[in-house]
């Protein structure tokens, strides 16, 4: 009997030990599986965090950097995620508005999961022909805007100008400075549109030094006649032709003044044209007087002409000048005002910190001109990959 009881006790002990081992193993496996699931959740949270961050300001994107492992780490509680952006070909740094991959690694209790999400920019729904970040004033009844008009601040319409589109107020408190003298299709959106400064755009396009770099590495010699001293001054019947090139020609100016029956030609047959006005924060002159004319953008919208103003002076179009280009005059609160007098016609967007329209100007919206610079957002494109499920060391 004693031998049987001892044998039974041994058998029970072995069974209990086995059950205990199984329970511990199962608990350990369940804990690891839970950590894997939590790490995946953190990795996906990192992707969403980055989408939000670059949608607010693409210049603040988390880059790969030179650290090992790469990226920027954000820790909280018992976990963390490490995230960075690359161009679609794997090159770095990522520069807006290129499509991109967001690579994020979630780490929980030493367990990691890495996901790679394809992303692209989605432009704002508005077709802005005219945008005043802080303020916009339109005087009289004869001005016409063929497209949407928007602001993050206030509008004053003295008279009843024609807006063939919507009037959009963006952000809390954005509204009419005084009631308009007529009816418009008005939208109020809860958040302001975040427009990058010209300095930010230049730094993204020229990582070697932004505006200071393009001041010494430009295509001024490509113009006819060549631009000397970073200034264009035309009087009487003078003509200046700015030629485009494949990938985009970049001209750098301190000032541009046109008086009389002069002609400025944007010859974009060979490629887009970008005109940068600097240095940043200095005063200069950008004035079109008289009958200045140029090739209409609408004839070749795939080779855009863009003007970027980083100076503090006003950008003025007078008389019957025609500007067939986008004018982006926003470099922060110190930017000058865009002023249209007389009957100038503009084929392209006008983005300014403040603008004033007098007389009978007409602005025609041209699609996709500054689509990468609007308050759109970045989001999921067409692929998502789980790169690994390895233990993080």
Largest sheet: 16 strands, parallel
Shape: elongated
Proportion of residues in helical segments: 10-25%
How confident is the prediction overall: mean pLDDT?
A: 85
Spatial separation of the terminal alpha carbons = 56 Å
Strand content: 35-45%
Task: Set out the fold topology.
Layout: H1 2-56, E1 72-76, E2 79-87, E3 100-108, E4 111-122, E5 128-139, E6 144-146, E7 148-151, E8 154-158, E9 162-163, E10 166-170, E11 175-176, E12 185-189, H2 198-205, H3 210-216, E13 231-234, E14 239-243, E15 249-253, E16 255-258, E17 263-267, E18 273-277, E19 285-288, E20 305-309, E21 315-317, E22 322-323, E23 326-329, E24 337-340, E25 345-347, E26 350-357, E27 362-364, E28 377-388
Parallel strand pairs: 5-7, 5-8, 5-26, 6-9, 6-27, 7-10, 8-11, 10-12, 13-16, 14-17, 15-18, 16-19, 18-20, 19-21, 20-23, 21-24, 22-25, 23-26, 24-26, 25-27
Antiparallel strand pairs: 1-2, 2-3, 3-4, 4-28
Brief description of this entry?
This protein is 18% helix and 38% strand. It contains three helices and 28 strands. The longest helix is centred in the first third of the chain and has 55 residues, at 2-56.
Could you please describe the fold and organization of this structure?
This protein is of the alpha/beta class. It has helices at 2-56, 198-205, 210-216, and strands at 72-76, 79-87, 100-108, 111-122, 128-139, 144-146, 148-151, 154-158, 162-163, 166-170, 175-176, 185-189, 231-234, 239-243, 249-253, 255-258, 263-267, 273-277, 285-288, 305-309, 315-317, 322-323, 326-329, 337-340, 345-347, 350-357, 362-364, 377-388. The protein has a 16-stranded parallel β-sheet that branches. The chain has a five-stranded antiparallel β-sheet with strand order 1-2-3-4-28, covered by helices on one side. The radius of gyration is 29 Å and the shape is elongated. The relative contact order is 0.13.
């Amino acid at each position: 009997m004693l031998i049987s009881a001892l044998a039974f006790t041994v058998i029970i002990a072995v069974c209990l030990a086995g059950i205990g081992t199984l329970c511990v193993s199962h608990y350990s496996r369940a804990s690891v599986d839970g950590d894997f699931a939590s790490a995946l959740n953190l990795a996906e949270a990192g992707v969403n965090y980055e989408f939000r961050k670059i949608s607010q300001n693409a210049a603040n994107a988390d880059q790969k950097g030179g650290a090992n492992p790469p990226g920027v780490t954000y820790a909280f509680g018992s976990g963390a995620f490490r995230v960075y952006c690359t161009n679609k070909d794997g090159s770095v740094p990522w520069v807006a508005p290129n499509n991109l991959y967001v690579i994020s690694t979630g780490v929980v209790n030493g367990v990691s999961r890495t996901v790679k999400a394809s992303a692209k920019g989605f432009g704002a729904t508005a077709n802005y022909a005219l945008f005043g970040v802080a303020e916009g004033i339109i005087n009289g009844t004869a001005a016409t805007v063929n497209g949407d008009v928007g602001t993050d601040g206030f509008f004053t319409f003295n008279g009843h100008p024609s807006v063939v589109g919507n009037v959009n107020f963006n952000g809390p408190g954005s509204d009419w400075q005084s009631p308009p003298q007529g009816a418009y299709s008005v939208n109020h959106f809860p958040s302001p549109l975040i427009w990058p400064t010209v300095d930010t755009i230049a730094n993204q396009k020229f990582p070697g030094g932004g505006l200071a770099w393009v001041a010494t590495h430009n295509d001024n010699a490509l113009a006819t006649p060549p631009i000397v001293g970073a200034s264009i001054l035309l009087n009487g019947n003078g003509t200046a032709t700015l030629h485009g090139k494949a990938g985009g020609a970049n001209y750098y100016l301190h000032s541009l003044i046109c008086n009389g029956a002069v002609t400025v030609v944007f010859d974009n047959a060979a490629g887009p044209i970008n005109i940068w006005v600097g240095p940043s924060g200095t005063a200069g002159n950008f004035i079109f007087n008289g009958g200045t004319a140029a090739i209409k953008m609408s004839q070749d919208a795939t080779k855009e002409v863009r003007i970027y103003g980083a100076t503090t002076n006003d950008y003025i179009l007078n008389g019957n000048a025609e500007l067939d280009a986008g004018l982006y005059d926003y470099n922060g609160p110190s930017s000058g005002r865009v002023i249209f007098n007389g009957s100038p016609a503009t084929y392209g967007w006008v983005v300014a910190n403040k603008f004033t329209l007098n007389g009978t100007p007409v602005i025609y919206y041209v699609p996709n001109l500054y689509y990468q610079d609007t308050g759109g957002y970045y989001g999921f494109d067409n692929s998502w990959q789980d790169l690994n499920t390895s233990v993080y060391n």
